[in-house]
Structure to design on (182 residues):
């Protein structure tokens, strides 16, 4: 059974970059085998549907609107996500995860299992760095991701060598055209 791990978010919008940051940290440190595909899908809108269409299992990492302190990790299953009506479409993720799931469920083509690993953001605005509480939650989210995948029956192994390169969005290009980490 194939499992997709999808990091959602815009790395140029502060805490909204949580999903891509977590899936990158997970992929740098762990190997979950050939049946798990880890992807930073950015802010997909309608492009999220192919990842969900007839999928066995999908694990999504993203920011969430919820009560609690910034940096708090929240786990939701498919029923939790679909429990409440969708809100108005007003952001870059639109249509959102809930709308994509509802559309595919209505068509009888939704994923069998869905888990959302979310974090409550502190700030979402033009920035390439996560706020301190959300950055501090990245290791906990990676651990939650390992636990979720293990619970789904995957053998998750720590990589022997974990070389973490700075993410592409933290690099700057000098006037001479060479790339340097900021």
């Amino acid at each position: 059974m194939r499992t997709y791990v999808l990091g959602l978010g815009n790395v140029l919008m502060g805490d909204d970059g949580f999903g891509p940051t977590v899936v990158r940290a997970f992929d740098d440190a762990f190997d979950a085998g050939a049946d798990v595909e880890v992807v930073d899908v950015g802010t997909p809108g309608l492009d999220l549907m192919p990842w969900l269409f007839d999928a066995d299992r999908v694990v999504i990492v993203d920011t969430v609107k919820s009560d609690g302190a910034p940096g708090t990790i929240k786990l939701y299953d498919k029923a939790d996500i679909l429990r409440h009506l969708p809100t108005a479409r007003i952001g870059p993720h639109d249509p959102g995860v809930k709308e994509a799931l509802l559309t595919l469920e209505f068509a009888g083509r939704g994923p069998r299992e869905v888990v959302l690993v979310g974090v409550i953001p502190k700030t979402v605005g033009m920035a390439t760095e996560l706020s301190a509480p959300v950055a501090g939650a990245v290791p906990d989210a990676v651990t939650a991701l390992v636990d979720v995948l293990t619970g789904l029956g995957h053998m998750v192994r720590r990589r022997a060598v974990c070389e973490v390169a700075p993410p592409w969005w933290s690099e700057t290009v000098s006037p001479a055209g060479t790339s340097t980490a900021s």
Summary: The first helix runs from residue 18 to 29.
